[in-house]
Specification:
alpha+beta; four-stranded antiparallel sheet; globular; seven-stranded antiparallel sheet; disordered C terminus
């Protein structure tokens, strides 16, 4: 479009172009001062609005359940200071162009400070406010450098240059001093962007706050959101039925302080905060049901939930080495690859699981590769990185004792795109399997109405940014062959045995045995992107807790819509990961807060 415009302008005879441009010059000269004043007032009014929004966002700290008073007050202070600056500048009688530089400098620095504070804040509009302030900071710095390097040519020269479409802007090469100042500011800005913005963006890349911008700009995104909302309505009766008739909640998971409108990521964070509080107050360690793989495997085995065969679980290295030597002495007695899993290394980034083949169990290979790997992983401390709840989670993980499990492989044929066992990650809410994600297919979601959604998640593909989806039948054979019925059943059995409100259960599918899926692992704080289903999952998680809190008297506000049933609280004092099958049978509606978790 720009090229076409310039071509059209170039077709006008040069004399006409020049005469027209020069005839406008006197008018521009007379109106230049008024125009400059108007532009400056407009920019300062805009900055006042930005600072006001920042201050409002900081003010939300006073009613957030997880108080962030210090950060919130810092945001309020910077926003209020910026508003004061903007009002003072607007009240100046006749601002001059030479006054732009200090104004731009101060506002740009202040907005950078606001953006940095917002990155560590959990306010309701944190995502949008970070990008707003970041964008304003970029524009301010660009304009500042533009003026700093003396590129501020007057309107007459710009108009003539564009009109003629051939002449460049007239500008004088800046001095070494201004060039150095501009280069320094650029370096500082890019350092700030790399060290603060990039890690923050990686942490919050799946935040639901982005959904509104996708649906605003993409018809396909709006259609995907509409279908997700319609699907949610079909699942509400099933979730409520599970709450009333089958599911009981372990008291450990009844401590999360929820409120209306929270995202899945905020709920995960509040859940982990509740875990930490219970650890301090009652020494409850229910988080080990996921974060200690050995505890998880023992639980699943005790509840007769299908998992690949366990050879042994060890918290003593010498006992582990005895088992490895026994395998080495009789390698034909086992199926391969055998998996060594660090019990305390549950994060994918910890690389705590490794397959080993018969050739690795020779004496030479064991001393060269296997035993050094075991020593390294035994000493390694677990870390959960690039998550909003990183600090809270890492304090919990620090309590885990080193250990390892030796496990047989899953027998299923490896038919996934990465030549690994076919795995589906099932989200279960209040004992009802809501959907299953086939992440290896980037990404296919299986719904309970026997349909599949596909969102193309390859780098650079438009759907990566719009999150729209289309119907996909590549995995329809899983429904036709009864595989998904068995998947839903084992996922719900596992969630009900634990007594957990919301959980992701990763399940292996054996293409040759439709009725024999097996559980691989669990996740209490999934990092997967659930697109337009995420807000509905969060709502289904929140509403029964809201009813429970009203029944207990800890929440006074009336319900804003349909009243969901409160979960029945499991009457047990046993730690989550130490429960036996009989512990899940007792439930009541009494005050669960009086339960003592041993």
């Amino acid at each position: 479009e720009i090229t076409l415009l310039f071509w059209l302008l170039s077709q006008i005879p040069l004399k006409i172009r020049t005469k027209a441009a020069l005839s406008l010059a006197p008018l521009l000269k007379k109106s230049e001062k008024i125009l400059m004043v108007f532009i400056q007032l407009l920019l300062r009014a805009f900055m006042f609005g930005v600072h006001a929004l920042v201050a409002y966002e900081g003010g939300t700290c006073f009613y957030m359940p997880d108080l962030q008073l210090s950060t919130g007050l810092a945001i309020v202070f910077t926003g209020a200071f910026g508003m004061f600056m903007a009002i003072t500048e607007i009240q100046e009688s006749i601002p001059q162009a030479k006054e732009w530089k200090p104004s731009i400098i101060l506002h740009s620095i202040l907005v950078l400070v606001e953006s940095s504070f917002l990155m560590s804040y959990n306010g309701p509009d944190m995502i949008n406010m970070v990008w707003l302030t970041f964008g304003v900071a970029q524009m301010g710095i660009a304009l500042w450098i533009f003026l700093l390097l003396k590129l501020d040519v007057n309107a007459k020269k710009i108009l003539i240059s564009v009109w003629n479409a051939v002449n460049g802007l007239d500008w004088q090469f800046p001095s070494k001093r201004t060039t150095t100042a501009g280069a320094t500011m650029l370096l500082l800005f890019f350092y700030w962007k790399q060290e603060l913005v990039a890690p923050w963006d990686n942490t919050y890349k799946n935040h639901e706050g982005y959904n509104w911008s996708f649906t605003l700009t993409s018809g396909g995104a709006r259609d995907a959101q509409r279908r997700a909302n319609a699907y949610f309505k079909t699942q509400i009766p099933h979730i409520r039925n599970s709450l009333r008739n089958r599911f009981t909640l372990h008291p450990y998971f009844a401590q999360t302080e929820v409120r209306e409108g929270l995202s899945m990521e905020r709920l995960y964070h509040l859940r982990l905060t509740a875990f930490e509080k219970q650890l301090i107050s009652t020494n409850a360690t229910g988080f080990m049901i996921e974060k200690d793989k050995c505890a998880m495997l023992k639980f699943l085995e005790a509840h007769d939930i299908g998992i690949p065969k366990i050879i042994g679980i060890y918290h003593n290295k010498e006992e582990l080495y005895k088992t490895l030597n026994a395998i080495s002495a009789s390698p034909t007695s086992y199926k391969y690859p055998l998996f060594l899993k660090g019990c305390h290394l549950t994060q994918g980034s910890d690389s705590g699981t490794k397959p080993w083949f018969p050739k690795d169990f020779t004496e030479t290979q064991m001393h060269r590769k296997m035993l050094p790997w075991v020593e390294e992983k035994w000493q390694q401390r677990p870390q959960d990185s690039n998550r909003p709840w990183t600090d809270t989670m890492n304090r919990l993980l620090a309590l885990l004792k080193p250990g390892m499990a030796v496990q047989w492989p899953f027998r299923g044929v490896r038919i996934s795109p990465d030549h690994t066992p076919m795995e589906v990650k099932v989200e279960v809410i209040w004992g009802r399997a809501y959907f299953g994600m086939f992440a290896d297919f980037h990404d296919i979601i299986a719904l309970r109405d026997n349909t599949f959604e596909f969102t193309e998640r390859r780098e650079g593909h438009p759907e990566l940014w719009s999150l729209e989806n289309s119907r996909d039948d590549r995995l329809a054979w899983l429904v036709d062959g009864g595989y998904m019925d068995a998947v839903w059943a084992i996922a719900e059995k596992t969630a009900c045995a634990i007594g957990i409100d919301s959980v992701r259960i990763d399940i292996f599918i054996d293409p040759e045995h439709p009725n024999e899926p097996m559980v691989n692992e669990l996740s209490l704080s999934s990092g997967h992107h659930y697109f337009y289903h995420a807000p509905n999952l969060a709502n289904a998680w929140i509403q029964p807790h809201m009813t429970r809190m009203r029944n207990e008297g800890s929440l006074k506000s009336p319900p804003s819509g349909d009243v969901w049933p409160a979960p029945r609280i499991r009457q047990t004092a046993t730690q989550v990961h130490l429960q036996r099958p009989e512990d899940g049978k007792g439930a009541g509606r009494g005050n669960h807060l009086q339960s003592v978790v041993r």
